[in-house]
Write a structure and sequence with these properties.
With 137 residues, the chain is mainly β. It contains no helices and 8 strands. A hairpin with a 2-residue loop joins strand 7 and strand 8.
């Protein structure tokens, strides 16, 4: 089933245990992304269940600092997401004057296993792996 614009869906099902998978198509990644896999126990009629997809609609801010803790403007920050054994580039942005690159949900960022790489003057300066399950800085 497909949710409405509020993220709701109505289903009619018998009592029992159900595996529920929530997907969303990412135009940036050109594929469906699993947002949540969970088990639901339906124990009564008219039961309402809420499923939180914490890796959807997230933002990420990356700060590039030099050895002395000063911001590095114009460093290139690249964000990739892991699918199976493959890393897929999501986006890249230069840092602003304050040393931050800000990736907003509108840029197609979907959480999960993320790799962030920072390039200064065209050379890789550092890489960090994280599990993005909510907006982070």
């Amino acid at each position: 089933r497909i949710t409405d614009d509020q993220g709701n869906v109505n289903l009619s099902a018998k009592f029992g245990r159900y595996e529920v998978n929530v997907y969303n198509y990412s135009a940036v990644l050109e594929r469906e992304v699993v947002l949540k896999e969970t088990t639901i126990n339906l124990t009564k009629d008219g039961m309402s269940v809420e499923i939180h997809c914490s890796i959807f609609n997230v933002s990420l801010s990356v700060e590039a600092l030099d050895y002395f803790g000063q911001p590095i403007p114009n460093a290139l920050v690249e964000v990739e997401r892991k699918f199976g054994q493959e890393w897929v580039k999501i986006d890249s942005l230069p840092t602003e004057f304050d040393g931050f690159a800000r990736f907003a949900p509108l840029r197609g960022l979907v959480g999960g296993d993320i790799r962030v790489s920072v390039y200064v003057a065209g050379k890789l300066s550092g890489t960090k792996h994280l599990y993005l399950d909510g907006s982070k800085q």
